[in-house]
Design goal:
Elements: E1 8-12, H1 19-30, E2 33-36, H2 37-50, H3 58-67, E3 70-73, E4 76-79, E5 82-83, H4 91-100, H5 104-115, E6 123-127, H6 130-134, E7 140-145, H7 148-161, H8 168-184, E8 197-200, H9 206-222
Parallel strand pairs: 1-6, 1-7, 2-6, 7-8
Antiparallel strand pairs: 3-4, 4-5
Bound molecules: 2'-deoxycytidine-5'-monophosphate (DC).
């Protein structure tokens, strides 16, 4: 089926930038579908860790990615019929996801699954390479970021609210290491493309960031380019 006419907004950015929250809210406002592509890499990491696959075995990891039996339903992410929405959010899963996401075979294995989210009336997709690789023809491409310190503080607050103890200095170090890995890998690195709008949320709250994206999309629609 040709999906070229279905509008896509991509929101790429580094870890803990708040892109997931912003993307979800933009999707809800527009009545669009939502793709959390990072969740797919986290699911591969979780499945691999559970079946004790060596995280340096690219070929087997790509098979795990191709075989993922997963259903996204509201806030639930069901893998092999177990809700793993919380399990994939652990720092361990995030770090393993960042490692395996550097493998071209794993990325290729997840490509069609991501593109299948492009359904009417539209899609908001968040990740690292949504605008550069997965949906290069997206109507609007955003690069959403904040300083590493601000992101560490936000992640710390989130974890404390969930009753999880965390240390800001360790979180900051993890974020910086993950940024370096996600930005410097040879395939689909995190980067700001020439056709991408940069949105720094260091001094913006969620509502301001959401409104900014919605306004940019409205301008594109008004020009008849969505
Ligand atoms: O957005 P996140 O923290 O849930 O993503 C987890 C890891 O997955 C991240 O460190 C890099 C990788 N990732 C990726 O390489 N490409 C994407 N489109 C999304 C995530």
């Amino acid at each position: 089926m040709n999906t070229d006419h279905i509008p896509v907004i991509t929101i790429d950015g580094p870890s803990a930038s708040g892109k997931g929250t912003v993307a979800q809210k933009v999707a809800a406002k527009l009545g669009f579908h939502y793709l959390d592509s990072g969740a797919l890499y986290r699911l591969v990491a979780l499945a691999a860790m559970r079946s004790e696959v060596d995280l340096s075995d690219e070929k087997t990891l790509s098979e795990v990615a191709a075989r993922l039996n997963v259903i996204f339903k509201d806030t639930e992410i069901r893998m092999d019929d177990e809700n793993v929405a919380d399990a994939i959010r652990s720092e361990a899963c995030g770090n393993s996801a960042s490692r395996i996401a550097a493998y071209p075979l794993v990325r290729t294995a997840l490509l069609a699954r991501q593109r299948a989210f492009r359904q009417l009336p539209g899609l908001v997709a968040d990740g690292r390479d949504m605008g550069s690789v997965v949906f290069p023809e997206a109507a609007l491409k955003i690069f959403l970021t904040a300083s590493a310190e601000t992101r560490a503080e936000r992640r710390h607050k989130q974890l404390m609210e969930k009753g999880i103890d965390a240390n800001i200095a360790t979180l900051l170090q993890d974020i910086q290491e993950r940024d370096a890995r996600d930005s410097n890998r040879s395939v689909a690195p995190l980067q700001v493309g020439a056709d991408t709008n940069f949105l720094d949320t260091t001094s913006l709250d969620i509502t301001q960031a959401v409104n900014c994206v919605l306004q940019q999309y409205a301008e594109i629609c008004a020009k008849g380019r969505a």
